[in-house]
Every structure is written in C-alpha cells, then in structure tokens.
Amino acid sequence: MMETINTTLFLLINATPASPGWLIRLAVFIARDMISIVPLLAVALWLWGPRQQISTQRHLVIKLAMAMAVSLVVSWALSLAFPHPRPFAEGIGYQWLHHSADDSFPSDHGTVIFTFAIAFLFWHRVWSGIFMLILGCAIAWSRVYLGIHWPLDMVGGFLVGLLACLSSQILWPGPGIKLFRIVQRLYRVCFSALINKGWVRD
C-alpha cells in the first residue's frame, strides 16, 4: 500500500522530457546548492549578531549541532534497517541529476534541511522557522522532481529531524550546556585576535 502511494506520488511530481527546461534547471540549483545555507547561517549566527542576542544565537547553534548529530546517526541506522533503492535504480521515472545508486531512505538532504528548519521553529523565531520549512519543502520537491528520491524519503527526513530536535531539547539542560561552555571557551581562545579587533563577537 505505502509503496503504491510512494510510486504514484513520485510519478505525479517527477519531471518528464516535456517539462520546461527552465524549471528543471531551477530544480537542479535548489537540489544541489541551497543546502549550503545550513553551515553558512550557523557560522553567521555564532560569529555575529546584536550583543544582547549573541548568547541565545549560540545556544541555538549548539542545539542545532546536537540535533544534526542525532539526525544523521538515526538516518544512517534507518538506511541500514530499511534499505530502499532510488527510483532510477528501479527504472521508474526520469533522472535529471546525477547521483550514485545508494539507498534513498531517508533522504540525507531532507534530514539536514528539516532538522535545521525545525530547530529554527523551536528555538529561533516562528517566521524564520516557517521560511526554513518552505525552503526544506522546495529542496524536497526538487529532489523528487529530478528523479533521485521518493516522496516518502522526504517524509522520513522530516520525521527524523523532528525526533532529533526533541532529543536535543531533552539533552540540553545537562550535556548541552556543558558542550556549549566547552565550545565557547575554545572559540574565545582560537578567535581571540579577531575578537580583540572587533571583527567577530566575544
């Protein structure tokens, strides 16, 4: 039943030779490049921001890092427990972006971007979380549209991201706070020259 739904949804979304070339090129850009916002935004949140908000931003970065670690471990375990070939490996639909024929469930891209989006929704601001969720949906759509993932791979990524953020919140009062203090001390030692020049926040 689930396989039938998965295949039906995939064929409804997947691009065909009749699809507009500009839309396929846009999907390639979204699928391949938009995920880079995750490390860039995390670094920016740690290094810069209003003085009264920088501590809160850095808490978010550490919570996000913890959630990301949990999500990637869970994603790896699920891929071993429930191996599933990609659509093109089964000869279904059309493939528009090169990708190795490894297991597809859950989507690594989906797991990362949805973990990031849910973290922002939980610990930053509602509007930023909604924006990231929209971006996550765009990335999920693009990778299905280009024929390298099934729709349920993305649903799996969202659920793993949700579980990871809940786990990070549970761990925060103990290990999370300790990790934050360690990283903060290391940062102040390694970036002392830049901090003294005022290029980055203390």
Automatic annotation (TrEMBL):
Entry GO MF terms: undecaprenyl-diphosphatase activity
Main EC class the enzyme belongs to: hydrolase
Domain Phosphatidic acid phosphatase type 2/haloperoxidase: start-end pairs: 61-169
Entries under SUPFAM superfamilies matching the protein: Acid phosphatase/Vanadium-dependent haloperoxidase
Keyword Membrane listed: yes
Pfam families attached to this UniProt entry: PAP2 (PF01569)
Keywords: Membrane, Transmembrane, Transmembrane helix
Top-level division of the source organism's lineage: Bacteria
Gene Ontology CC annotations of this record: plasma membrane
Keyword Transmembrane: yes
Known catalytic reactions: di-trans,octa-cis-undecaprenyl diphosphate + H2O = di-trans,octa-cis-undecaprenyl phosphate + phosphate + H(+)
This enzyme's EC code(s): 3.6.1.27
Stretches that traverse the bilayer: 22-48, 60-84, 104-123, 130-148, 154-172
PANTHER family per record: AT30094P, SPHINGOSINE-1-PHOSPHATE PHOSPHOHYDROLASE
Protein name: undecaprenyl-diphosphate phosphatase
